[in-house]
Amino acid sequence: MQFYRRLLPVAAASFDLDDTLYNNVPVMQRAEQAVRDYVVREFPQTATWQPHDWAQLRQQIMQRDVRLASDMTQLRLTALAAGLAHFGVPSAEAEAGATAAMAEFMRYRNLVEIDPQVHQLLAQLSAKLPVIAISNGNVNVTEIGLAPYFQLILQPNAELRGKPFTDMFEAAARQFPELHPQQWLHVGDSPYADVLGAHRAGWQSAWFTGGLGQAEHLRVLPTLAYQRLEDLAQHLLK
Length: 238
Known about the structure:
Blueprint: E1 2-3, E2 12-15, H1 25-42, H2 51-64, H3 72-86, H4 91-109, H5 116-128, E3 131-134, E4 152-154, H6 167-175, E5 184-188, H7 191-201, E6 204-208, E7 224-226, H8 229-236
Parallel strand pairs: 2-3, 2-5, 3-4, 5-6, 6-7
Antiparallel strand pairs: 1-7
């Protein structure tokens, strides 16, 4: 581990999920392909679009409505309905088709493989201090088997914007009013969402360097950086 700031005593920890506790890249690739194949089966006129075309549409929608950038489920539903409408599908049918396609997406989205050691380390940490999840993703934490370790699970919705907005950090703080912000340690792989988000909330941060984020993306330095969850857990379990 590499320390950039002095780590103050940690009384509670929050974890990002995707690409922090498991490799989410192949999961998303399979889910994207599965939903595209489903849409083509149900609406053959969409066959000319590949997953990158649907991704481009989502980017365009996010640029028009920044609120949707924090709600992955609603963003995908909106993009699916808009894409179907683009191919001439009537509005009511497009809405129903988007809902069905989203269910297919989530079926593959939740097929996450988690290393047994992650379960073990989360169990040890949660036995010592409050552990919660703060994720911008829409994975079903119960379905992937991680819910038992978390006292609280926060994901974006109509009321809570995603990281690096501080909404979810503030919602967590309200549930644990006895804790000072600097007693929290937020763990995640994103320099922007996790490190910057924690910094804005006044929390300490542990940056997982084996995820998707790169050092050049850092806006602020984390409290510490680590490559193996085992190392971080051992330090917190001392």
